[in-house]
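Suppose a colleague, Dr. K., hands you the sequence of a protein chain of 317 amino acids and asks what its three-dimensional shape might be. Before reaching for any lab equipment, you can write down a predicted structure in token form. Begin with the sequence itself:
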Amino acid sequence: MMLFHLLILLISSLALIQATIKIIHALEKISHFFALRDFSIAFILMAVATSLPELFVGITSAVADAPALSLGNVLGSNIVNLTLVIGLVVLVSGGINARSIIVRRDALYMAVFATVPILMLLDGLFSRIDSIIVLVFYFLYLTRLLSQRTAFKERHNHVTAKEALLNFWIFIAGVAVLLLSAEGIVFASKRIALDLGIALSLVGMFFVSLGTSLPEIVFELKAVKRNQSGLALGDLVGSVVANATLVLGVTGLIRPIEVDFLNVFLAPVIYLLVALLIFEVFVRTDKKLVSWEGLLLVLMYIMFLLTEIGLQYYRPV
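The predicted structure, expressed as tokens, is then:
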């Protein structure tokens, strides 16, 4: 049965990724039709779109009385984004410019917003009040982005009304597939946790987070290839913020998250805080991410995996 559950998880994750890619493409076309600025596409539309897998997994896991899966997925996804994803993008592209003052400022806001939920988890409970607070943080973040919209250029890509309508229906169909695939992921994850005898949150941290983070890799690689490093970094920053605030907030609002913080989440939290610090330093040093920094970030993710595998032998379910 273990192989069967892994197959369900794989198929559901692939469906989730494909649906997200279709949604991202549809939102790009729709945003071009309405002539939205670059900041709307990178920081709001794309950051939210690439976080849709985490959001749908969070909602589904909360409804299924397994909110710890979403917490593990959020922590794992943010670690993946700040190490493996951006590291691979930097290595493939040969370097990413981070000269924009806005990107560097938002990297600092990202570090703060990603740390706040961690502080709230120290008592072992992410309550509905905590959820409301982080959701307020998210909307404050969006408000701040709206205040700096004049720093981004207008889009003039021509998209007809017919194309926009078609992409709207593609977006709706993509959301439906996301919902169904999220159901499959939650079902398979619960069974895999039982099969392996590990905490459900760890399944979210390892297996699910890799799958839900693939849309970020796709979008950021495309942005870098088009010489739009600002979009890639904007997507990274926006995704981490959305995961830590919007995704956790919605999940906790539906069902509060109880965790064994010291046994399960201490090591991942330490890795996440270190990754946030290293990314902040790299973005500000010479205002560019270079190849050796990308390699270091990828190696850090490998160290995270090895650490968690080692700790699993001493960690209760």
